[in-house]
Design a protein that fits this description.
Elements (H helix, E strand, L loop, with lengths): L12 H23 L3 H10 L4 H7 L4 H20 L9 H17 L2 H11 L5 H19 L6 H24 L1 H23 L5 H15 L5
Length: about 220
């Protein structure tokens, strides 16, 4: 069994762990097309980087799930790096989201075969919770880039809606190609914008205000006019 790497005083454990995670991920991206995204692939990638089974359990206690999260976050970082060259304020909001989603799709497409295996892994029912969590993380990163500063319920609704676009859009990009995915994203954004336009003229808080007023009158009596 390979000896665990030794840490010097100038090499903090966190730095070593971060670098080793990325090194293992590099190897996993190379080997996933042949091995799939699973525990066997994680073990092979760790062994190739000189990690013992104990080291692997420390770095990736949840095995392929943890490595899938590292891959998704790498793709998020890659998308944001490409978006750094774009001024979101120069774009309409729908253009910002379309540009952001496109950048994220292409970030994952750079590791296409490995990304496909990882997507199939995340599609398993036992991993659905992780897939949703990672989609939310991505949506949050993209909305932050787009300049969203909402702190009320809109903060959450925007990320929920974008997560609902991202999951099928990314899947289409991996398996059906860029054109199909881009067309899907455009249609979904059109749908969302149409809904937002319709919603803008509605007072959805009115029923809540009426109920609150009624409860207030029952407790305190009619308000003075």
């Amino acid at each position: 069994m390979t000896d665990a790497p030794h840490l010097s005083n100038s090499q903090p454990e966190g730095d070593w762990a971060d670098r080793m995670e990325q090194a293992v991920l590099d190897t996993a991206v190379e080997r996933a097309p042949g091995l799939g995204w699973n525990g066997r692939m994680v073990r092979a990638a760790c062994e190739a980087n000189g990690l013992s089974l104990g080291d692997e359990e420390l770095l990736f206690p949840n095995g392929a799930r943890d490595l899938a999260a590292v891959l998704s976050r790498r793709h998020d970082d890659r998308a944001l790096a490409s978006l750094a060259e774009v001024d979101p304020q120069s774009l309409k909001i729908r253009e910002r989201i379309a540009r952001a989603v496109s950048a994220r799709m292409e970030a994952g497409a750079a590791d296409l075969e490995a990304t496909r295996r990882c997507a199939a892994f995340l599609a398993l029912p036992v991993n659905a919770d992780l897939g949703l969590k990672l989609a939310w993380e991505t949506a949050d990163e993209l909305w932050n880039w787009a300049g969203d500063t909402a702190t009320d319920w809109n903060h959450y609704s925007k990320r929920a809606i974008l997560s609902g676009i991202l999951i099928p859009a990314l899947t289409m990009r991996w398996f059906d190609g860029r054109d199909a995915a881009e067309a899907f994203v455009a249609r979904r954004i059109d749908n969302v914008m149409a809904f937002e336009k319709w919603k803008a003229g509605k007072d959805f808080d009115a029923p809540l205000r009426k109920m609150t007023d009624a409860l207030s009158r029952m407790r305190y009596g009619p308000r003075a006019t």
